[in-house]
Amino acid sequence: MAECTDKRCPIHGKISVRGNIFTCTVISAKPDKTVVVERPIVKFVPKYERYAKSKSRIYAHNPECINAKENDVVSVGETRRLSKTKCFVVTKVIGKKKIVKAEEDTFREHKRVKKEEKKPEKKKEEKEEEAEKEKAMEEKETEEEKSEEVKEKPTEDSKEEEKEQNKDDKEEKKSE
Asked: Which secondary-structure segment (H or E) carries 175?
């Protein structure tokens, strides 16, 4: 490869790296000779005695000889101000990110689908239990109705007996 002609290259140019040096992941490499890197920040919060996670996005100069791309893990060093938003430069590419964003999205989606599959199973079981309870209640109600109907339905013999009792009652009333 031909030697780099970028004046802002930390290896071939005259720019000095001083101050903070971070290991970050490249989020975007769309701008020309610029990358957007994201670094995780873990800070202890004494009030809650817990650690708070956050992240910071930094614009860094991307020399042609290094040419970092999206999802690369890179080392970024602080330099003098190079432009309005850039005061860091990519010093080297360490490797690729272990889980690529596309794989991460499919992993999250797979996890979500598994959760949705579990929920309907519970609902199906609950629905089956409810259906069984309803059937049992209906059976009880029909049995009760049948027993009531049997009690209420007068037979021919009982009708004749009632008529005789009514006649006897009327005769008793007359006699009184």
From this structure: helix 156-175
Q: Which helix (H) or strand (E) holds 118?
A: helix 101-152
Q: Does the predicted TM-score (pTM) go above 0.85?
A: no
Beta bridge partners of 50: 45
Task: Give the pair of three-digit tokens for residue 92.
Answer: 């080297």
CA dist 148 → 127, 144, 154 (Å): 31, 6, 12
pLDDT digits (tens, 9 = 90+) for 32-68: 899 999 988 999 999 999 999 999 999 999 998 888 9
Give the containing element (helix H, strand E) for 126: helix 101-152
Collapsing DSSP to helix, strand or coil, 105 comes out as helix
Return the SS3 of 82.
coil
Tokens of 135: 């059937």
Q: How far is CA 75 from CA 61, 79, 83, in A?
A: 12, 13, 20
- Which residues, at least 6 apart from 1, have a Cβ–Cβ distance to it below 8 Å? 65
**Maximum pairwise Cα distance, the chain:** 138
Token pair listed for 53: 């996670």
* Spatial CB neighbours of 22, under 8 Å, sequence gap ≥ 6: 37, 39, 58, 75, 76, 77, 88
Of 86, 70, 82, 90, give the one whose Cα is nearest residue 29.
Answer: 70
**Which of 55, 60, 69, 71 is closest to 9 using CA atoms?**
60
